Amino acid sequence: MPAIDSLTNHQVRLAARPVGLPTRANWDFTTEAVPEPTSGGVLVRTLFLSLDPAMRGWMNDAKSYIAPVGVGEVMRAGGIGVVVASKNPAFAAGDTVSAGLGVQEYCLIPEAELKRNGIFKIDPRLGSLTQWLNVLGMPGMTGYFGLMDVGQPKAGDTVVVSGAAGAVGQTVGQLAKIHGCRAVGIAGGPAKCEWVVNELGFDACIDYKSGSVRDGLKAHCPNGVDIYFDNVGGDILDHVLARINRKARIIICGAISQYNNTAPVQGPKNYLSLLVNRARMEGIVVFDYADRYPVAVAEMAAYLKDGRMKSKEDVAYGMDTFPEALLKLFNGENFGKLVLQVAD
Ligand SMILES: NC(=O)c1ccc[n+]([C@@H]2O[C@H](COP(=O)([O-])OP(=O)(O)OC[C@H]3O[C@@H](n4cnc5c(N)ncnc54)[C@H](OP(=O)(O)O)[C@@H]3O)[C@@H](O)[C@H]2O)c1
Fold first, then answer.
1. Is 285 in the pocket of ligand 1 (CB under 6 A)?
2. pTM > 0.90: yes or no
3. C-alpha closest to that of 314 among 344, 334, 294, 332
4. Do 4-134+312-341 and 138-287 share a fold?
5. CA of 83 to the centre of ligand 1 (A)
């Protein structure tokens, strides 16, 4: 490892807030010297970054569950990295960590920021580094707590999940099967639908790009829908609402079909189905469950080990590809959890 003061940190900063889909013009590529950590701080070298649909929301100047990224700031991103220098007894050079690293090669986390940053040491024996950004990481925790805490599945329930071949969706459908439910996915294209059924063991998957979701739900949910895990919003949410059962649970996890809209967000038209069916629709923000991640990680790692849980990650390479790689989430080009490899 060369001396820290000889290193350069390549970074991606938000240059301007996008209207609609982000373009290269929304990003600045900058460099700066890599600082030494001061007392209590940690310096991390980025290996993998998590590319998430939520990044689009963080680019907007709008009130949300977290402050927007400021224009000129390094783009926010979670990731996996290696500690290169530490002035904190809890971390040593060579430790592999999960942290809020930002889209940059090196991240200095001062002592006062450690808690807010959420940095923690990972155990590479429980899963690969990319699995730590997928089923063992933030999307896996979202699927786990969204389904188990908010959805409260019972054996025999029919669980429908959109974005089924994505990071959160793959976890939700597999957990539903583990808990004795019927799992029906909704995804774009035959390759994703086949993988979800043949590899992950879902009972069925509806290709929303080539057929009618309404007809698909009718065919594959003959007893109605008890739980809908919504990752996409829009028309698909309305189609599922039309088929829910009494006391159904709708988990509002995300609405990716709406994130790049220049028109106002499309809300559900069929919401009176909640009234008729005495059903519940509830949002989830994964960070609310941070205290319980270790328990869920242990459970998911056990499923990975015994083969009941599979995972798929889609790896893009190089920080200079970040603007185009991010767009894969919005045009459905990612197949599995999208990560960006920044270094070996
Ligand atoms: N609430 C929370 O705490 C939390 C945490 C993590 C993620 N989320 C949300 O969970 C959802 C899934 O996130 P993820 O990380 O797992 O992403 P992902 O599913 O791995 O990737 C996004 C997928 O969304 C689908 N998609 C894109 N545009 C669409 C559209 N117009 N209609 C229908 N599907 C569309 C695409 O799949 P197809 O090819 O199948 O179209 C794409 O591959 C997002 O809404 C995200 O914001 C929420």
1. yes
2. yes
3. 334
4. no
5. 31
Given the DSSP bridges, would you call strands 27-33 and 8-14 parallel, antiparallel or unpaired? antiparallel
CATH for the stretch 138-287: 3.40.50.720
pLDDT digits (tens, 9 = 90+) for 284-311: 999 999 999 999 999 999 999 999 999 9
Pocket test for ligand 1, best of 52, 256, 334 (most atoms within 8 A of CB): 256
- Residue 71 token pair: 């224009």
% of the chain surpassing 90 pLDDT: 98
Q: Largest alpha-carbon pair distance within the chain?
A: 66
Tens of pLDDT, residue by residue over 122-131, are 999 999 999 9
Spacing, Cα 255 to ligand 1 middle (Å): 7
Question: What are 251's two structure tokens?
Answer: 């988990």
**Minimal-distance CA residue to ligand 1 atom 11:** 231
Torsion sign, CA atoms 69, 72, 73, 76:
positive
| CATH class, range 4-134+312-341 | alpha beta
